[in-house]
Amino acid sequence: MRRIALFTAALTLAIASVCAPAQESRLPDIGSSAGTLLSPTEQEEYGEMFLAQLRHYDYILEDPLIDHWLDTLGTRLAANSDQPGQPFTFFMLRQRQINAFATLGGYIGVNAGLVLEADREDEVAAVLSHEIAHVTQLHVLRGVERAQKDQLPILLGMLGAIVAAQAAGGRSGDNAAQAAIISAMGLAQQRQIDYTRSNEHEADRLGIQTLSRSRYDTQAMADFFEKMLVASRTNAAGYYDTPDYLMTHPVTTTRIGEAKSRSQQIARAPAGYFGDVGRSDNPLLPGGFALSSSAPAAGGTGDFEFARERLRVLSADTASAAIREYRQLRVAGGLSPAQRYGHAIALLRDNQSAAAAKHLTELLDERPDHLWLKLALGQAEARSGKAESADAIFNALLRQGPHNRAVALTYADVLGERNTVEAGQRAQAVLRPLLGRSAEDAVFHRTFARASDIAGDPVRAGEAHAEAAFLSGRAEQALVQLKTLKKRPEVDYYARARIESRIAAITPIVLELRRQGIRDEDLRRR
Q: Contact at 8 Å (CB) between 450 and 416?
């Protein structure tokens, strides 16, 4: 019940904050009440619910390779922030607007458009470091705390949400009014978040330190700010829309100058002065003394260019639109290896599997050990009718990494396309090693549900479908599915125990939703 009360409060605060202008203020002192407003557990629960709603309305771009790249990058930065113990969850949104935001619980969203705008991974890292600092310095909580002081906008926001929900009628998934509420929530994560100038400067300063500790180019923050400033000036001339990022993170020449100065200061500083990873700031040890050899190497994840091109395809309106983009890039100056990969992915999504396989084979001749290329070639071979060749590729990858999420999910999708009992059973076997660490993984549950369906395993399929529904903001639907599943005669003792445990966990959430008059519209129509 507390989870739903928290969600409702946070939603109304968020909607209210959309109307509240940013104001200059000083940072609270050490005795600020912001840290006591919500417990870490409550913040985490709110973040989970917010992500589930974004997923329900299809704002999230969920792709195993992109997820791994973004999580690797974000985790590296978080581990080198000023609060390395703070948990973070990083997720990608499919929108091409240039934007990123942080919300409660360490949940940080990045729009595909921001990655497409960046020239190098250091610039994406700079934005993530900035957002990480907003979380560690409690800037988001301070925004909520400020909003709570203005009760009238909160009540108006709540009234507006209720009216919009009632007007939604009988459609839940695609109803424009409900989608507007979620859009307001997304905007609120940034406006709530109408960060003060002091917040922004603090996030810049700490973000640059995090970049340095993580072995990224500290100049990247100023470089990206300059891009945004150019974009805002271009907008002033009436050519383009202002990037969304500028709406909540105003960029000025002063901020750019300070970012450059800070970068230069860190570059000139003695070893360990800013607490760099692998360096000691202990005055009893020699300058530059390395405490550990585990500091991250310079150069980033190594996957940025391929991730950017994969995002170009996955965020395009259609596969044919992505193909047209690559034609334009070729005319403008030829395609890089990463862009050739992106073009192959676009062809694959456009059902031109043989052409995609040809391009991917050529790329693999140049980079024979590249995982992303091998996965794409496996998909292309399978869709070209070469099942044995595809299986050989995927089985070799599984032998190298049986717990690799991207390999398992991609192969399971390929097997699911065959739609045979044998393929379904094989997909289940491929996915089972991930079961223990996939409780919050909606993509995994959807994929496992599909595999179990075609394998003729209705109990496992039902459990997975219910989990996917719950993680997509459909708690009531998940509960109904589990109660129906429990009545099936093939449910054994162990499955019944699992199902009853989930029913017990989800029931209080659904009861509180009903108490507040919130019902799943798809179920209400029945």
A: yes
221 shares its domain with 110: yes
Chain centroid to CA 126: 16
**Token pair for residue 9?**
């409060």
Domain end point (choices 400, 423, 457): 400
Q: Is residue 430 part of a domain?
A: no
Are residues 239 and 351 both part of a single domain?
A: no
Report residue 62 as tokens: 């969920």
Residue 117 token pair: 């705008």
Q: Which domain holds residue 168?
A: 2-20+37-268
- Which residue matches tokens 């125990």? 497
315 and 93 in contact (C-beta within 8 Å)? no
% residues pLDDT > 90 (the chain)? 57
Dihedrals φ, ψ of 428, to 5°?
-60, -45
Write out the two tokens for 267: 């570059």
Are 252 and 379 part of one and the same domain?
A: no
Cis status of the peptide bond prior to 345, with omega within 30 of 0: no
Last residue of a domain, one of 241, 268, 295: 268
CATH no. for residue 381?
A: 1.25.40.10
Dihedral angle over CA of 264, 267, 270, 271, nearest 10: 150
pLDDT for 77: 97
Contacts of 401 (CB under 8 A, 6+ apart): 407
Q: Would you say residue 409 lies in a domain?
A: no
Q: Which position has the token pair 């093939």? A: 490
Full-model pTM = 0.81
Does 521 reside within a domain?
Answer: no
Q: Are residues 209 and 62 in the same domain?
A: yes
Average pLDDT, rounded, for the chain? 81
Q: Tokens standing for 53?
A: 């709603």
Sheet arrangement for strand 100-103: 89-93, 107-111, 100-103
Is residue 155 in some structural domain?
A: yes
* Tens-digit pLDDT profile for residues 392-435: 999 999 999 999 999 999 999 999 999 999 999 999 999 999 99
- The pair of structure tokens assigned to 84 is 């390395």
> What is the C-alpha separation between 398 and 285, in angstroms, rounded?
46
**Pairing between strand 107-111 and 100-103?**
antiparallel
Nearest alpha carbon to residue 462 among 472, 452, 471: 452
